[in-house]
Amino acid sequence: MGGADVFFVLSLIALIIIVLDGKRRIKHRASAAQPYSCREQQRQSPSQEASNLPTQPQNPAKDALPTSPPTETTQCLSASGGSLIGSTLRIDGDVSAHEALVISGAIVGHVTAWEHSVMVNEAGSVSPRIEARTICVAGSVTGQLMATDQAIMLSSARVSGSIDATRLKCESGAWLKSTVK
């Protein structure tokens, strides 16, 4: 074997290693993009999942209300990816997403993600409209919610306006002043 052949073989091996490492890094980034609780739920068996769901924080104003056991609504809405609007971000204008969207900040404008899910975290707020496949609210929404699949109101949700959804799930403790279609 000549020097050129050895160089060619070594280059080919290096190329294969680079491609495999790139695939490994992509897989690692995808799992790192998921919230920690989502990764833990995926690793657990269904029997473990029910016993390890996070407990809801105690709120002195709600102590007199009966609490319901955690349900499937506390699970993550998207398996991976998506966009996060952080708690320090305020958007005055419309937001159109082509992936799952998690809102921890404030949006004053229309939020649209027709083929995806929108999650409004406890610190998040949206007005006047959300349009998505699945809408999950743990924070505050004033205005119209339009879900082509389902709308989920968690116990900390505060919704004022109208809800138009194929299916509606509402946990005990959620505050709704809404018309439901």
Radius of gyration, Cα only, in angstroms?
Answer: 22 Å
Largest sheet: 9 strands, parallel
Q: Per the principal axes of the C-alpha atoms, what is the gross shape?
A: elongated
User: How far from one another are the termini?
Assistant: 77 Å
Q: Give start-end ranges of low-pLDDT stretches.
A: 36-80
Q: Helix fraction?
A: 10-25%
How many strands appear in the DSSP assignment? 9
Beta-strand portion reads: 35-45%
Structural category is alpha/beta
Overall mean pLDDT stands at 78
Oligomer: single chain
Give a structural overview:
There is one protein chain. This protein is an alpha/beta fold and 181 residues long. It is 25% helix and 40% strand. The chain has three helices and nine strands, in the order αααβββββββββ. Strands 1, 2, 3, 4, 5, 6, 7, 8 and 9 form a nine-stranded parallel sheet that branches. The chain is elongated.
